[in-house]
Amino acid sequence: MSNLDNLTSKILEDSNKRVKSILDKAENEKKSIIDSKVKTAKDEAENILKKSQIEAKSKAERVISNTYLKVRNEKLRAKQEIVDSVFDKAVESLNKMSKDKYLKFVKDVIGSLDIDGDEELIVSKEDAKKIDDKFLNELNNELANKGKKSQLKLSQEKRDLNGGFILYKNGIEINNSYDALVFSLRDELEQEIVSALFS
Q1: Mean pLDDT, 10 residues at a time, over the chain (199 residues)?
Q2: In this predicted model, what pLDDT tens digit does every residue of 93-127 receive, in sequence order?
Q3: Name one Pfam family in it (predicted).
Q4: Is residue 76 domain-shared with residue 24, that is, in the same domain?
Q5: Are 137 and 151 in contact (CB under 8 A)?
Q6: Do 106 and 51 lie in a common domain?
Q7: Do 113 and 91 lie in a common domain?
């Protein structure tokens, strides 16, 4: 019987050792799996954190960039309003010319143009009051002295001009209104004005 007890004891001992070995192996695998999952989770958390930091930085840079653009655009808009105001005041100033200066302006401009001399002079209702037959005769005499026709006449048509005049013939208009003249000079003068005002 003792052999049987020994054998049983041996089998139990071996079984216990195997169970312990299996349990140790399972515990090690469990630990390894948990460590691996924890490492993966930490790596993912770190990647998510880095990605969110990059996105936050990128978003902040976009917000700052957009703010700079808005500020720049506001400055440009303000400068443009000031420049527009300068040109509007130039037209206003031209409009305040005395009758004599206005008539000299009309005479000088017409004298400098290559026209036939039989055009119609279109002006505003206000400026029409400044032009009389004597002035038209003087203009026509000057045109005749230059070998041109001397048939320039004041048109019955009155335009809503902001000063100046338009010469009209056969559907063609030469616009010498103050607005058109100031606008034609704007490109070359605008940079000078900006430099003078904002430097």
Answers
A1: 70 75 79 84 85 87 89 85 83 89 93 91 92 93 92 92 92 92 80 70
A2: 888 889 999 999 999 999 999 899 899 999 999 99
A3: vATP-synt_E
A4: yes
A5: no
A6: no
A7: no
Number of domains observed in the structure of the chain: 2
User: Which residues lie closer than 8 Å to 25 by C-beta, 6 or more apart?
Assistant: none
Q: What angle do CA 84, 88, 93 make, to 5 degrees?
A: 145
Name the residue among 114, 112, 88, 87 with its Cα closest to residue 185. Answer: 87
What is the domain extent for residue 75? Answer: 1-96
CA 89 vs CA 96, 106, 126, 160: distances in Å:
10, 20, 19, 18
Residues 103 and 186 in one domain: yes
Query: How distant, in Å, are the alpha carbons of 118, 123, 125, 157, 177 from that of 160?
Result: 23, 8, 8, 10, 10
Last residue of a domain, one of 42, 69, 96: 96
- One DSSP character per residue, 5-40 reads HHHHHHHHHHHHHHHHHHHHHHHHHHHHHHHHHHHH
